[in-house]
Amino acid sequence: MTTQAGAQPRPGGRAAFLADLHPGYFAFVMATGIISTGTYLLGPSWLSVTLLAVSCAGLVVLTVAFVGKSISYRDRVVADIRAPDRVFEFFSIPAGLDVLAVRYAFAGHPLVTAILAAAAAACWLVLTYGVPASLFLARASDSELGGVNGTWLLWIVATQSLSVSAATLAPAWPSQARLLAPVAAGLWGVGLLLYLMVVGLILLRWLTVPMTPATLGPPYWILMGASAISVLAGSNVLVLPRTIPVIAATAGFIEGFSFALWAFGTWWIPLLIILGLWRHVRRHWPLTYEPTLWSVVFPLGMYSVATLTFGKTAGLAFMRPIAHAMLWVAVAAWTLVAAALLVRLARHQASGPLRGTRAPPLG
Length: 363
Known about the structure:
Elements: H1 13-20, H2 27-42, H3 45-72, H4 74-82, H5 92-106, H6 110-137, H7 154-172, H8 177-208, H9 222-238, H10 245-282, H11 294-314, H12 319-351
């Protein structure tokens, strides 16, 4: 391998994977975990258990790999933190932890749920103040609008996932319900306002910065996924006892706005399909495996779970068949992306070690 004078040689093989690993790869854990939850609710149970095991294995592998990168390639981690188009990928870490936490709650393991949710909360607290502060106080240019992309919506996903975890833990620990309920409702409100703000920034970027196939990546599907998890969080808050003052005060607003968010998320789906067709058909962008595709799978699974849960909570029977159909769309998408990943790995294994090519950002 040749390099320019004075340049650092690029690592190859496993070292290249480690060096180029983005925290946004935790979208695999998010996607697999939420489909495991969906199949737990709608069946089949064997698929739910299998996907839970796969999601846990992915979490362990990615955590070890990311810690290794932080030790061996600290400069690259710092570069990701300073890049507005990549820094929000870090929010996929607490989101992935919370998705698994909720799945373990369904499995009857509230202690595991609490541990995962506590780890997610600690990570979220650091990110939710550190990331905006870095953009406000240490930005490299007068405007960061060009760095706005779909990964910014992971901020909302992580926030609402904490709301879901808090609301899920409340019935398991009734003595703490009056503490967890305000946390769940408050985080839902924070996530709602962040969603409105970030969607406004994304639309502004679309209308002012030229669109290219490279910048119109799969993570824009989180526009739908972020609205869906907001609906799920609202649904979980609504099932908490109305005797808790904060629930009694906010239930009507949360229910009405959750339906509006569900409708808005549904509205996004045809538009996102049109944008995908423009990218791959009109502009001939290759339709091959890229890690960002997990950011398409997660919203599909989340939409199914959120639709099923809100329909049951609000008494809207028409939502159940929609949730069932979308779950199988999500399962099919997961299968296709997983198969593409295995084919990619097999080709690299047959042709020799992976060469160091930096993975594209999730946006």
